[in-house]
Amino acid sequence: PLSQLKTIEKLRSTSLNIDVEQIGAGFTSKGDRQDHIIAAKSGLKAVAESIANYDMIIADEINYALSGRLIEESEVLNLMKLANDKGVHFILTGRGSTQKMQDLADTVTMMMKIMVIILKLN
Q1: 13-22, 40-49, 66-75, 83-92: which range is least confident on average?
Q2: pTM of the model
Q3: What pLDDT, on the 0 to 100 scale, is given for residue 91?
Q4: Is 49 buried (19+), middle (13-18) or exposed (0-12) by CB count in 10 A?
Q5: pLDDT, tens digit (0-9, with 9 covering 90-100), for 32-49
Q6: CB-based contacts of 104: which residues, under 8 Å, 6+ apart?
Q7: Is 88:46 a contact under the CB 8 Å cutoff?
Q8: Which long-range contacts (CB under 8 A, 24 or more apart) does 63-67 make?
Q9: Tell me: the pLDDT tens digits for 43-80?
Q10: Angle ∠(82,86,91) on CA atoms, nearest 5
Protein backbone atom coordinates (compact mmCIF):
# COMPACT_ATOMS: atom_id res chain seq x y z
CA PRO A 1 0.00 0.00 0.00
CA LEU A 2 2.78 2.45 0.73
CA SER A 3 4.18 2.16 -2.79
CA GLN A 4 0.68 2.72 -4.21
CA LEU A 5 0.30 5.90 -2.18
CA LYS A 6 3.76 7.10 -3.21
CA THR A 7 2.85 6.57 -6.85
CA ILE A 8 -0.36 8.53 -6.39
CA GLU A 9 1.58 11.41 -4.84
CA LYS A 10 3.88 11.47 -7.87
CA LEU A 11 0.89 11.49 -10.21
CA ARG A 12 -0.64 14.37 -8.27
CA SER A 13 2.41 16.46 -9.19
CA THR A 14 1.26 16.21 -12.82
CA SER A 15 -1.91 17.75 -14.15
CA LEU A 16 -3.98 14.79 -13.00
CA ASN A 17 -6.62 15.40 -10.37
CA ILE A 18 -6.54 12.35 -8.11
CA ASP A 19 -8.44 11.78 -4.89
CA VAL A 20 -7.87 8.84 -2.57
CA GLU A 21 -10.30 7.67 0.03
CA GLN A 22 -9.17 4.68 2.04
CA ILE A 23 -12.11 2.80 3.45
CA GLY A 24 -11.88 -0.43 5.34
CA ALA A 25 -11.11 -1.92 8.68
CA GLY A 26 -7.80 -3.52 7.74
CA PHE A 27 -7.12 -7.20 7.31
CA THR A 28 -10.28 -9.24 7.68
CA SER A 29 -8.38 -11.83 9.72
CA LYS A 30 -8.06 -9.22 12.44
CA GLY A 31 -10.75 -7.33 14.31
CA ASP A 32 -14.50 -7.68 14.59
CA ARG A 33 -16.30 -9.06 11.51
CA GLN A 34 -19.18 -6.62 11.94
CA ASP A 35 -16.72 -3.71 11.77
CA HIS A 36 -15.44 -5.08 8.45
CA ILE A 37 -18.98 -5.40 7.08
CA ILE A 38 -19.82 -1.83 8.10
CA ALA A 39 -16.60 -0.54 6.52
CA ALA A 40 -17.23 -2.45 3.27
CA LYS A 41 -20.80 -1.15 3.04
CA SER A 42 -19.47 2.36 3.67
CA GLY A 43 -17.04 1.85 0.79
CA LEU A 44 -19.85 0.81 -1.55
CA LYS A 45 -21.84 3.88 -0.59
CA ALA A 46 -18.84 6.16 -1.16
CA VAL A 47 -18.28 4.69 -4.63
CA ALA A 48 -21.95 5.05 -5.57
CA GLU A 49 -21.96 8.69 -4.45
CA SER A 50 -18.70 9.43 -6.29
CA ILE A 51 -19.35 7.81 -9.65
CA ALA A 52 -20.78 10.93 -11.29
CA ASN A 53 -17.77 13.02 -10.22
CA TYR A 54 -14.89 11.04 -11.74
CA ASP A 55 -13.68 9.60 -15.03
CA MET A 56 -12.20 6.58 -13.29
CA ILE A 57 -12.73 4.88 -9.96
CA ILE A 58 -10.55 2.08 -8.63
CA ALA A 59 -12.19 -0.07 -5.98
CA ASP A 60 -9.01 -1.67 -4.70
CA GLU A 61 -9.51 -5.12 -3.14
CA ILE A 62 -13.30 -5.00 -3.54
CA ASN A 63 -13.27 -8.60 -4.72
CA TYR A 64 -11.84 -9.68 -1.37
CA ALA A 65 -14.75 -7.97 0.36
CA LEU A 66 -17.09 -9.87 -1.93
CA SER A 67 -15.42 -13.27 -1.55
CA GLY A 68 -15.22 -12.68 2.21
CA ARG A 69 -18.99 -12.11 2.24
CA LEU A 70 -18.71 -8.56 3.54
CA ILE A 71 -20.76 -7.31 0.59
CA GLU A 72 -23.17 -8.92 -1.86
CA GLU A 73 -22.55 -9.66 -5.52
CA SER A 74 -25.71 -7.75 -6.47
CA GLU A 75 -24.30 -4.60 -4.85
CA VAL A 76 -21.12 -4.81 -6.92
CA LEU A 77 -23.05 -5.56 -10.12
CA ASN A 78 -25.24 -2.50 -9.48
CA LEU A 79 -22.14 -0.32 -9.10
CA MET A 80 -20.68 -1.74 -12.30
CA LYS A 81 -23.90 -0.96 -14.18
CA LEU A 82 -24.09 2.54 -12.69
CA ALA A 83 -20.51 3.28 -13.68
CA ASN A 84 -21.14 1.98 -17.18
CA ASP A 85 -24.28 4.12 -17.52
CA LYS A 86 -22.29 7.21 -16.46
CA GLY A 87 -19.35 6.39 -18.76
CA VAL A 88 -16.99 5.96 -15.81
CA HIS A 89 -14.08 3.53 -15.94
CA PHE A 90 -14.61 1.28 -12.92
CA ILE A 91 -11.69 -0.92 -11.96
CA LEU A 92 -12.17 -3.66 -9.39
CA THR A 93 -9.17 -5.45 -7.92
CA GLY A 94 -8.52 -8.50 -5.81
CA ARG A 95 -9.22 -12.19 -6.12
CA GLY A 96 -12.71 -13.59 -6.05
CA SER A 97 -14.67 -11.87 -8.80
CA THR A 98 -17.75 -13.80 -9.87
CA GLN A 99 -18.65 -15.05 -13.31
CA LYS A 100 -21.49 -12.49 -13.50
CA MET A 101 -19.03 -9.70 -12.78
CA GLN A 102 -16.64 -11.01 -15.41
CA ASP A 103 -19.47 -11.26 -17.94
CA LEU A 104 -20.47 -7.64 -17.27
CA ALA A 105 -16.91 -6.31 -17.46
CA ASP A 106 -15.34 -4.93 -20.63
CA THR A 107 -11.97 -6.40 -19.72
CA VAL A 108 -10.96 -9.09 -17.26
CA THR A 109 -7.31 -9.56 -16.39
CA MET A 110 -6.10 -12.62 -14.55
CA MET A 111 -2.62 -12.42 -13.09
CA MET A 112 -0.56 -15.17 -11.65
CA LYS A 113 2.69 -15.28 -9.81
CA ILE A 114 5.33 -17.14 -11.74
CA MET A 115 8.40 -18.37 -9.97
CA VAL A 116 11.52 -18.81 -12.00
CA ILE A 117 14.29 -20.91 -10.56
CA ILE A 118 17.70 -20.71 -12.15
CA LEU A 119 20.19 -23.39 -11.24
CA LYS A 120 23.83 -23.01 -11.96
CA LEU A 121 25.31 -26.34 -12.94
CA ASN A 122 29.01 -26.88 -12.43
Answers
A1: 13-22
A2: 0.76
A3: 92
A4: exposed
A5: 889 889 999 999 999 999
A6: 77, 80, 81, 84
A7: no
A8: 63/92, 63/93, 63/94, 63/95, 63/96, 63/97, 64/28, 64/94, 64/95, 64/96, 65/24, 65/36, 65/40, 65/94, 66/96, 66/97, 66/98, 67/94, 67/95, 67/96
A9: 999 999 999 899 899 898 899 999 989 999 999 999 99
A10: 65
Instruction: Please tell me the distance from the alpha carbon of residue 85 to that of residue 114, in angstroms, as a whole number.
Output: 37
Type of residue found at 102: Q
The type of residue at 27 is F
User: Cβ distance 56 to 81 under 8 Å?
Assistant: no
Instruction: Report yes or no: 36 and 28 within 8 Å, Cβ to Cβ.
Output: yes
Candidates 19, 37, 15; CA nearest to 28 is 37
**SS3 track for the chain:** CHHHHHHHHHHHCCCCCCCCCCCCCCCCCCCCHHHHHHHHHHHHHHHHHHHHHCCEEEECCHHHHHHCCCCCHHHHHHHHHHHHHHCCEEEECCCCCCHHHHHHCCCCCCCCCCCCCCCCCC
